Amino acid sequence: MSEEMKKRVQSTFSKNKESYVTSATHNNQQDLNLITEWLDPEPNWKGLDLATGGGHVAREMSRWMDHVVASDLTKDMLQNTARHLSGIKNLSYIIADVSSLPFLDESFDVVCCRIAPHHFSEPEKFIKEAYRVLKPRGQFLMIDNIAPEEDYLDLFYNTFEQMRDSSHNRAWKVSEWKTMIQPAGFQVNREVRRKKTLPFRDWLERTLHDKTSQQLVEEYFLQAETEISSYFSIVLKGGSVESFSIDEWMVLCQKA
User: Which of 18, 109, 117, 247 could form a disulfide with 144 if both were Cys (CB 3.0 to 4.6 A apart)?
Assistant: First the structure.
């Protein structure tokens, strides 16, 4: 990850570390249960949760695996998460850049990364590093917000994400992710693309605190053309944005 993007990510998540722990979007238990269902973990496995944030996935993995490492680029975020999860004894914490992981080859049975890759400035390196640290036949599970395949919808989506969060690099299209995942050596075993509805205020205020900047983001939504507004299911109430929907991709891959 570039030094400039590292600083942006660290700044954003240091300032907002508590809001990510309590975020309803990140703490969605139905989503976490689905991760466990897809992985079907064994009790002797060792897992790695990349860009752990509030530690929701790491916490879920620790219920079923022998040991889990929760890693994050942002020290303040990781320390805050460690405090919240201090009662879990089979969890450890390591500060790590996803593009250069501090682990030996073939160290983990599972690598997970959820709602984070859109912050990564070098996604190809992230994929290659996930592959490297997995044991043979190990599983890689990724969930992230994705851009629509249509360029004008892609532009609208990534624009408002960058307006709201300076650490947002890019949400990639599924077609773009596959050009990174498959050449790395992964086999895609399972995938689902789904809609995710976000309460506008909760989403906006999680990372953006300046009222003028918040207003600019809302105006961008309000000025959206009908086709764009329909695609993102923008819901208005009393002239203000109440909620909207984005695309999310969940994919389970296996190392050869």
Answer: 117
